Amino acid sequence: MTGTVSVARIDALFHEHLARGAAPSAAWGVFDAEGLQHSQQSGVAADAAFRIASCTKSFTAAALLSLRDEGLLGLDDPITRFIPGLNLDGLPSAGSAVPTVRMLLTMSAGLPTDDPWADRQESLSAAEFDSVLAAGVRFESEPGTRFAYSNLGYAMLGRVIEVAAGLPYRRVVEERLLEPLGLNGTGFDTSVAASGGIVTGFRRHAGSWEPLPFTGPGAFSAIGGLFSTVADLARWAGWLASAFTSEGADAAGGMLSAASRREMQQLHRLDQSMTAHPTGYGYGLFVEQYSPTSRVVSHSGGYPGFSAHMRWSLERGVGVIAFENATYSRVSAVATTVCDQLLAEPAILVPAPAPVLWPETRTAQLAVKALLAAWAGGADAPLDPALFSENVAQDEPIGRRAAAVRRAVADIGGLTDGAQSAGRSDGPAHLVWFLQGRSGRLRVEIRLTPEARPRVQTLLVSIDLAGR
Q1: Residue 339's closest CA among 278, 302, 295?
Q2: Minimum mean pLDDT range among 101-105, 228-232, 390-394
Q3: First and final CA of the chain: distance in angstroms?
Q4: Can you say whether the dihedral through the CA atoms of 284, 64, 128, 212 is positive or negative?
Q5: What is the pTM of this model?
Q6: Mapping DSSP to helix (H, G, I), strand (E, B) and coil, where does residue 104 land?
Q7: pLDDT above 80 for 5
């Protein structure tokens, strides 16, 4: 699977990071649509469980969407429906919106970034959390207007899940996600059944590694409480990514529909601080638009003693999982480098599947070809209203369209009987193809309406200058 990006090169990148003093130990793996293809570790047993920290947020979002799909909550419900004791005196203005579930999901509820504080709150009891919320929370921006990474927001979503499901947050995640997917090495405390044991976290102190005690679980488990293995997290990420393949979308998973998994992996809220390429938050996941045809989904995890990262390409079906057991080790940087190198290698790139055209699109192509032949022959043939929407004639009168086609055909020396190109498309309702002439060719583009019986709404004919 790794083409010319060899397994040795992947392993070397992680070993080099460790050699620079990033962490005592690490584990990593590369996966594709078929599953985990390579995994390796240093300083720990195979299939050891690390704390995955904020990668947990993807599980929180998936559990919440499963409740939404059952009608137990709405994404646009105000948060006060589930946390009536939340003191909102800290809202920026009298006209501020009450934060909604969706705002919390997309990190746009107006709460400030809170990593150092929130990382130490996991073991908070429900009663203590209630006290925090009753005392009030401060907002730095109007809810629903901008991105800011908020752990407190996801802790509130953990409470939303409990109220909507009538069960503890951790039990909801276990019953709805971990157990059905067979993620046996994943759990919320050190009793998780990982065959390689639980890895201890460390931080640097006085030139050596200082072990850190485990915390939790508690009211903040929804922000980052899970432990997991490379194999389990690769299975989780692969299951999310499979929603974009026909096999994954059609599979009867039962845990969460393919539509909801795709919803998680959309860029719902732009991160205004990023400039390299559009980047933002979906539901429990970051989404980066590398190019018009390349999206990468990811999440990092940082907790006292641990650093984690998961990353995958939706179009190419390849991804990376990486863990290290040190505070702020930045394993995400290595994982990103590995993933980018994999995506840059043609040998491992599975070509993005061409869109499956609607039958009506092919029917329209044949009708347009006949229409263009009639126009080229001198007749101002009318449009069949069953095949063309009203706007086509309204946007440009038929006489003008026919005259323009005759001029273009004359300019390329007339049409030949040669086979037309197969065409290309950006979706089922769209098609571009070429008609060959003696001294050039015509570019023809159509786009169909979203009606139950689709008709041509766009008809563009021009000389293909690039093909002359």
Answers
A1: 295
A2: 390-394
A3: 40
A4: negative
A5: 0.84
A6: helix
A7: no
Can you give the pLDDT at residue 349? 41
Predicted confidence at residue 419, as pLDDT, reads 60
Residue type (1 letter), 286:
F
Q: 128-161 burial, b for 16+ CB within 10 Å, e for fewer?
A: ebbebbeeebebebbbbebbbbbbbbbbbbbbbb
Q: Taking each helix axis as running N to C, give the angle between helix 230-241 and helix 56-69, from 0 to 180 degrees, rounded to the nearest 10.
A: 40
Half-sphere exposure of 138 (CA within 13 A, CB side): 4
Model confidence pLDDT, tens digit, residues 23-52: 999 999 999 999 999 999 999 999 999 999
| Cβ contact 62:261 at 8 Å | yes
**In Å, how far from its chain's centre is CA 95?**
33
CA of residue 321 relative to chain centroid, distance: 15
Phi, psi for residue 302 in degrees, rounded to 5: -130, 125
Q: Contact 3/30 with Cβ under 8 angstroms? A: no
Q: Specify whether the CB–CB gap between 323 and 50 falls below 8 A.
A: yes
- Among 239, 244, 270, 55, smallest CA distance to 148 is for 270
Q: Which two tokens stand for residue 395?
A: 């946007």
Token pair of 308 as six digits? 């984690």
Position 188 pLDDT exceeds 60: yes
Query: What pLDDT score does 251 carry?
Result: 53
User: Which tokens is 68 given?
Assistant: 């939404």
**Which residues fall within 8 angstroms of residue 351, CB to CB, at 6 or more apart?**
none
The whole-number average pLDDT for the span 184-190 is 95
If one compares 271 and 347, the residue with the highest pLDDT of the two is 271
Task: Give the up-direction half-sphere exposure of residue 449: CA atoms within 13 A in the CB hemisphere.
Answer: 15
Dihedrals φ, ψ of 312, to 5°?
-155, 155
Half-sphere exposure of 455 (CA within 13 A, CB side): 13
pLDDT at 344 over 90: no
User: What residue ranges define each of the domains in the chain, with the CATH number in brackets?
Assistant: 7-348 (3.40.710.10), 359-467 (3.10.450)
**Nearest C-alpha neighbor of 50 from the set 238, 312, 311, 324:** 324
Rounded CA separation 71/365 (Å): 43
